[in-house]
Amino acid sequence: MPQRHIRLYIPGPVEVSERTWRAFCTPMIGHRGAGFQELYAAIQPMLRELLFTKNPVFLSTSSAWGVMEAAVRNLVRPGRRVLCCMSGAFSDKWFDVALASGLQADKAQVEWGRAILPELVEAKLKERAYDAVTLIHNETSTGAMNPLAEIAAVVRKHSDALLIVDAVSSMSGVKIAMDALGIDVLLAGVQKAFALPPGLSLFAVSERALERAKQTPHRGYYFDFLEFLKNHENNMTPSTPSIAHVFALKAKLEEFAAEGLDRRFARHLEMAMMVRRWAAERGFALFPQEGYASVTLSCLENTRQVEVAAWIRRLKEKHACIFDGGYGKLKGRAFRIAHMGDETPETLRRLLGWLDDTLEAKG
Ligand SMILES: *Cc1c(COP(=O)(O)O)cnc(C)c1O
Question: What is 7-14+260-358's CATH number, 3.40.50.2300, 3.90.79.10, 1.20.120.1220, 3.90.1150.10?
Answer without folding.
Answer: 3.90.1150.10
